[in-house]
């Protein structure tokens, strides 16, 4: 294992939100839980991309689950019929495996057996992707979200896990402080976003940069854009509507597979990936002072990038 205990010993360390989550280690500017970092380091040097691969990348709680449903749905779409809809039987996590989880389970996985085009997901920052990913022609879909809603969603998600493990909820104020300092798994959030944004400007044919709010505002237009980017254009309106319905928050939240059970790899309840699915829920949780503080960090971090969040 490349990242030995002595390597961790020299890294900056912080407690992660909630007792059951362990500690975060800072590696090349980003924060990782120890098992994630070991796997990420292995994946960085060993993950071999294929030109046909599709990688879904995001920070936590930016609407990844929506894309975890949309991407496999579009890639395997055969027309409006519930036959062969894998979303009925599988949580979206199972349809698009996580690179970090793969390397957590096996530091030398054989991924050649996965049929092409292979679909993967990751919360790793762009700088932690393998050179093979960076230099191949594989496509990357990145999704981001208003940092205030992202933070609120993350806080609820961590608390849902704490409840499952009969722990106290993590105080909102402390969590907010950590988020503002960028101390959360795969954080800092803003640095993560800016890295992918800049790469998407350099290589728009390889990296599609999406925003949760735009998907909410113009789902048809955004899904058509996504499908065309993936090389599977949806021409008929009836198909666009069907894909959107299949992957809708309301439908997925009510499917039995998403209401029961826990993802054994990460210990989060399947249901905790579906909460409210709204834009602007931060207003129910953050004070005006908190809003202004986080907005200011966002403005500073994104200054000059041409990106607006
Ligand atoms: P909220 O906590 O604000 O409700 P991620 O998938 O990156 O973990 O992000 C989770 C957020 O996406 C949650 O936001 C969740 O409710 C929302 N979400 C999950 N599935 C969705 C879907 N199909 N459509 C819209 N939002 C969805």
Automatic annotation (TrEMBL):
This is Sulfotransferase. Coiled coil: none annotated. One of its GO terms (cellular component) is cytoplasm. One of its GO terms (biological process) is sulfation. InterPro entries: P-loop_NTPase, Sulfotransferase_dom. Residues 51-306 form the Sulfotransferase domain. PANTHER family: SULFOTRANSFERASE SULT. Its EC number is 2.8.2.-. It is an enzyme of class 2 (transferase). GO terms for molecular function: sulfotransferase activity. It comes from the Eukaryota. Belongs to the sulfotransferase 1 family. The keyword Transferase applies. It holds the Pfam family Sulfotransfer_1. SUPFAM superfamilies: P-loop containing nucleoside triphosphate hydrolases (SSF52540). Keywords: Transferase. It comes from Manihot esculenta.
């Amino acid at each position: 294992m490349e990242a030995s205990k002595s390597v961790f010993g020299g890294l900056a360390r912080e407690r992660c939100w909630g007792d059951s989550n362990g500690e975060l280690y800072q590696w090349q500017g980003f924060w990782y839980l120890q098992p994630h970092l070991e796997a990420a380091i292995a994946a960085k040097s060993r993950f071999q991309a294929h030109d046909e691969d599709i990688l879904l990348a995001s920070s936590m709680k930016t609407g990844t689950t929506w894309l975890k449903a949309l991407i496999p749905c579009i890639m395997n779409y055969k027309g409006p019929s519930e036959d062969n809809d894998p979303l009925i039987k599988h949580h979206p996590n199972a349809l698009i495996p996580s690179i970090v989880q793969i390397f957590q389970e096996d530091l030398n996985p054989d991924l050649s057996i996965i049929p092409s085009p292979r679909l993967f997901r990751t919360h790793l920052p762009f700088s932690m992707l393998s050179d093979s990913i960076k230099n191949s022609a594989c496509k990357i879909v990145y999704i981001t979200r208003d940092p205030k809603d992202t933070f609120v969603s993350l806080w609820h998600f961590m608390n849902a896990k704490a409840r499952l493990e009969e722990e106290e909820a993590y105080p909102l104020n402390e969590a907010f402080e950590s988020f503002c300092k960028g101390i959360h798994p795969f954080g800092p959030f803003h640095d993560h976003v800016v890295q992918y944004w800049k790469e998407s400007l350099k290589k728009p044919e390889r990296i599609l940069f999406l925003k949760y709010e735009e998907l909410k505002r113009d789902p048809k237009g955004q899904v058509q854009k996504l499908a065309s980017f993936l090389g599977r254009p949806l021409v008929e309106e009836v198909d666009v509507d069907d894909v959107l319905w299949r992957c809708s928050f309301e439908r997925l939240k009510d499917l039995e597979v998403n209401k029961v059970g826990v993802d054994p790899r990460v210990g989060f309840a399947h249901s905790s990936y579906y909460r409210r699915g709204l834009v602007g829920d931060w207003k129910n949780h953050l004070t005006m002072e908190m809003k202004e503080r986080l907005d200011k960090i966002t403005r500073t971090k994104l200054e000059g990038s041409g990106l607006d969040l």
